[in-house]
User: Which sequence fits this backbone?
């Protein structure tokens, strides 16, 4: 006997499949959002802050990433960062830095925190939190707690000022 499906059964099943597909599509972060977050972090990274519309937290967060590649990608002395930022062009920065900036963009996307690097070595990186100057300084303890619990971070420390 050939398989037949009544219209009363087929339409609800189709509607259910369509609804599930729409919900799954809505749950995935869009590529545009990820790109926007990376662009924001990259733009901040190329500037000398605090300046203009951006302010920096007084406190410093130290993070040691679980992947040595991230620590290596963000490896930079304070004077190197200053020199690269004075040039203000992406070509002044090492190409391998991109992977580290992608990790910082992930933090921005997940926790709405923009980290501005002060310096870094193979074991850890030091950051201040960048925020819009017309807004109050974010709660550094809340940010520190969120970042310290993240699976990508193996070590964290806060120097509160």
Assistant:
């Amino acid at each position: 006997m050939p398989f037949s499906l009544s219209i009363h059964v087929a339409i609800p099943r189709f509607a259910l499949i369509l609804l599930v597909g729409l919900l799954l599509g809505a749950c995935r972060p869009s590529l545009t959002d990820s790109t926007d977050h990376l662009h924001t972090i990259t733009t901040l990274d190329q500037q000398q802050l605090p300046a203009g519309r951006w302010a920096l937290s007084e406190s410093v967060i130290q993070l040691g990433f679980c992947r040595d590649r991230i620590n290596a990608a963000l490896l930079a002395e304070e004077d190197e960062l200053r020199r690269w930022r004075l040039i203000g062009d992406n070509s002044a920065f090492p190409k391998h830095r991109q992977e580290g900036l992608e990790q910082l963009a992930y933090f921005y996307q997940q926790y709405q925190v923009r980290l501005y690097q002060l310096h870094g070595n193979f074991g850890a990186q030091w950051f201040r939190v960048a925020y819009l100057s017309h807004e109050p300084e974010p709660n550094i303890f809340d940010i520190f707690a969120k970042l310290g619990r993240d699976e990508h971070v193996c070590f964290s420390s806060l120097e509160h000022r």
